[in-house]
Design goal:
Length: 129
């Protein structure tokens, strides 16, 4: 089994299952139905079928508008971005003791951003020649 997660989006007409559990765009269950019936419903209401749970029995699909799909993709991207990364990220910054004031302020802001992102920061100050 591949570890790569498929992108969230419309599955179009490529549905490998005969029987599906379908949920309408308002989140109400329409029950189990045959693939052809679900496709007909999709065409009648000008919606798209989206796979929600593949490992359920039968697999769960939801009828969604393009706007709902887009919003869900944004929500998932935001959630993924907010989730902690495995391992600890360490950032390193080094500068001379003769650094100009504005350069020091810029690097200080960068360090503050890294700390906000929960990175470990290592600062090295070299002696000016």
């Amino acid at each position: 089994e591949s570890k790569r997660k498929t992108a969230f989006g419309s599955v179009g007409r490529r549905i490998p299952y005969r029987i599906l559990h379908v949920i309408n765009q308002d989140g109400e269950s329409l029950g189990n139905m045959h693939r052809a019936e679900a496709l007909k419903l999709m065409d009648q209401h000008d919606l798209k079928l989206v796979l929600l749970q593949e490992n359920a029995e039968p697999p769960v699909y939801r009828l969604m508008t393009g706007q709902q799909i887009h919003e869900e993709q944004l929500r998932r991207a935001e959630k993924k971005k907010a989730s902690p990364k495995p391992g600890v990220v360490q950032k390193e910054l080094s500068f001379s003791s003769a650094i100009a004031k504005n350069d020091l302020e810029t690097k200080t802001k960068q360090i503050a951003q890294w700390i906000e992102k929960k990175y470990h920061v290592k600062v090295t100050i070299r002696e000016a020649k």
